[in-house]
Design brief:
With 262 residues, the protein is α/β, with parallel strands linked by helices. Helix content is 39%, strand content 17%. The strands form two sheets. The chain has a seven-stranded mixed beta sheet, with helices on both faces. It has a two-stranded antiparallel sheet with strand order 6-7. The longest helix is centred in the first third of the chain and has 18 residues. It is globular, with a radius of gyration of 17 Å. It comes from Kosmotoga arenicorallina S304.
Length: 262
Amino acid sequence: MFVRKWQASGDTKGKVIIAHGLGEHSGRYEDLAQFLSRNGFVVYATDNTGHGLDSAPYGAAKSISEYVERIKMLADMANFEIPDNNLFLFGHSLGGLTSIRLLEKYPSLFRAAILSSPPLMSYRNELKSLYFILFSLSFIVPFLRFSNRIDPSEISKDDKTNRFYKMEPSVHDKISVRFFFDMEKQISLSWERVDSINCPVMLTYGSEDRVVSTEAIEDFYNKLKTEKKIRCFEGSKHEPFRDQDVKEIYHSEILDFLLSLI
């Protein structure tokens, strides 16, 4: 398992695990990780199967459960290396959904979690007839890969960020039929088991996000029965923390959230 690690500056205040999104990789979180490390947190991240520097072909991930267990291994490693500090979780997009399933499966593992723009609504209505075609293919060629249909222009309101996302060799748009339907299953399970989340949660999203449903994020927030906070960044798209006029505010607010729980 490939691991990135950012050491804390000064005394260690806590540990943060980062779970990246679909088609990207952990290296895209350098700015956030560096910010947290400068403020006393040791940060860990890994690349999901078929992403970034993982050895599998792009888009070869089999299931979100596999990603859940990979992050769990990373969390166990962090707790072994630094046993006396709180462990936090940050997950973006697919990493946000993975984080929800982690919190539901291992409710005592993390002190708190930040869920950035998680997909929480089925894509059945959006895909229409294509959904049923893919469903048929899932029995015939489950590892067939197709485009995840994420429009690079919808990543951020910062055009430079979007161009780099589109050009970066380690970013891809591949997803297997099997993985897509596992994601549909995990979205459903997230709602069914939401009551098992018992740690503080902060949900963040951009008001102009067209990659995931912001309405579903708000509904999920309302269903949470634990200590919670939600933050909408007006005018931002799928990754508010990459907007030049928002990044500093975003970083500051999640740092305040983490520090309030130490």
